[in-house]
């Protein structure tokens, strides 16, 4: 299916867009004969809780996306060599950085893990690292001190300076950079633990707010944004009502699994009766996750290079790619 503005750009009754949109069927055809490099067992390992992503969807959505990403990586390498020649430099190439953004429960973590697995299967770039921004949340004690524990996941709940420094270090050519470790069971940063990333070919940064624009300083100038260092970005999108429903379904499933672990921060939810627990989850969405999506996450969608739009069945319905 072609974008009508692409077919006849002289028509005055169409709205030109910075994106090219393709239906799932048309997008799937772009994979051509790209080989599938993961099997059902690997997909089971990569999928998030209650995520229905199938091998068919991997073939029809994520294989074409990684094919396009590989093209970007290749030509960015050519640009690096041309830039070195022009400037008379011999500096090494820095990692190609991909940002993956989207709401809680929309499936961005599965998307990021699939991209890492598929891209690592290409011989041109075997070293692919994935870091989530959860590790850069302030520890719970610090969030409590700042009266931000009920705004966990909002932009102000992250140590943005540390996150920016992590990516800048790798983009500056440092051989390695380290990131804190977040434990979803304890709902907190693990004291003293670090993930060390050794200058990969590709670095994927996944998180709610990775596409946030630069912050305005009091003097009217703007600082750097994390997305300033992205070479490509993906926003996983869906209708707000669908995302809320998926969030409640995931909450219900967690009550039957992880929340029953005595080490879990959320054991109190497992002890509630189902109606009380789901009412609590509904309130958490309406007071925290929903407002964060509306105020901070969704407004960044237009900053992405690619948008994957999911339908009510959690399947990607169409893809938009920003024009160059």
Helix/sheet category: alpha/beta
CATH hierarchy class name: Alpha Beta
Residues in β-strands, percent: 15-25%
What is the H-and-E element order? HEHHHEHEHHEEEEHHHEE
How many helices does DSSP assign? 10
Q: Remind me, CATH topology?
A: Rossmann fold
Strand order of the largest sheet: 1-9-8-7-2-6-3
**CATH architecture annotation:** 3-Layer(aba) Sandwich
The CATH superfamily is identified as: P-loop containing nucleotide triphosphate hydrolases
Characterize the structure shown:
With 324 residues, the chain is of the alpha/beta class. The chain has a single domain (19-213, 221-322), classed as 3-Layer(aba) Sandwich (Rossmann fold), CATH 3.40.50. Helices cover 39% and strands 18% of the residues. The protein is built from 10 helices and 9 strands. The strands form 2 sheets. The protein has a 7-stranded mixed sheet. Residues 1-14 have low confidence and may be disordered.
List the helices and strands and how they pair.
Blueprint: H1 4-7, E1 19-23, H2 24-29, H3 40-46, H4 55-87, E2 96-102, H5 108-120, E3 128-132, H6 140-145, H7 160-171, E4 177-183, E5 188-197, E6 202-206, E7 232-237, H8 240-256, H9 267-271, H10 274-297, E8 306-310, E9 316-322
Parallel strand pairs: 2-6, 2-7, 3-6, 7-8
Antiparallel strand pairs: 1-9, 4-5, 8-9
């Amino acid at each position: 299916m072609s974008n009508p503005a692409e077919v006849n750009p002289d028509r005055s009754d169409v709205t030109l867009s910075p994106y090219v949109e393709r239906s799932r069927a048309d997008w799937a055809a772009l994979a051509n004969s790209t080989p599938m490099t993961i099997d059902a067992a690997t997909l089971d390992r990569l999928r998030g809780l209650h995520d229905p992503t199938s091998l068919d969807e991997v073939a029809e959505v994520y294989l074409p996306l990684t094919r396009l990403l590989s093209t970007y990586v290749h030509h960015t390498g050519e640009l690096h060599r041309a830039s070195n020649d022009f400037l008379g430099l011999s500096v090494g190439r820095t990692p190609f950085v991909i940002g993956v953004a989207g709401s809680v429960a929309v499936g961005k973590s599965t998307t990021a893990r699939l991209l890492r697995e598929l891209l690592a299967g290409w011989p041109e770039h075997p070293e692919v690292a994935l870091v989530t921004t959860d590790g850069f949340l302030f520890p719970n004690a610090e969030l409590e001190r700042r009266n931000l524990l009920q705004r966990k996941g909002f932009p102000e709940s992250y140590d943005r300076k540390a996150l920016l420094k992590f990516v800048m270090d790798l983009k500056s050519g440092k051989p390695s950079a380290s990131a804190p470790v977040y434990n979803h069971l304890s709902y907190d940063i693990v004291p003293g633990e670090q993930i060390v990333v050794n200058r990969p070919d590709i670095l994927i940064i996944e998180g709610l707010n990775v596409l946030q624009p630069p912050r305005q300083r009091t003097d009217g100038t703007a600082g750097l944004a994390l997305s300033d260092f992205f070479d490509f970005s993906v926003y996983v999108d869906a209708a707000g009502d669908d995302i809320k429903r998926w969030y409640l379904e995931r909450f219900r499933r967690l009550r039957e699994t992880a929340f029953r672990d005595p080490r879990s921060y959320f054991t109190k939810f497992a002890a509630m009766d189902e109606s009380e627990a789901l009412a609590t989850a509904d309130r958490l969405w309406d007071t925290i996750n929903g407002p964060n999506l509306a105020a901070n996450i969704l407004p960044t969608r237009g900053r992405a290079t690619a948008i994957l739009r999911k339908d009510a069945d959690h399947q990607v319905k169409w893809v938009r790619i920003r024009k160059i």
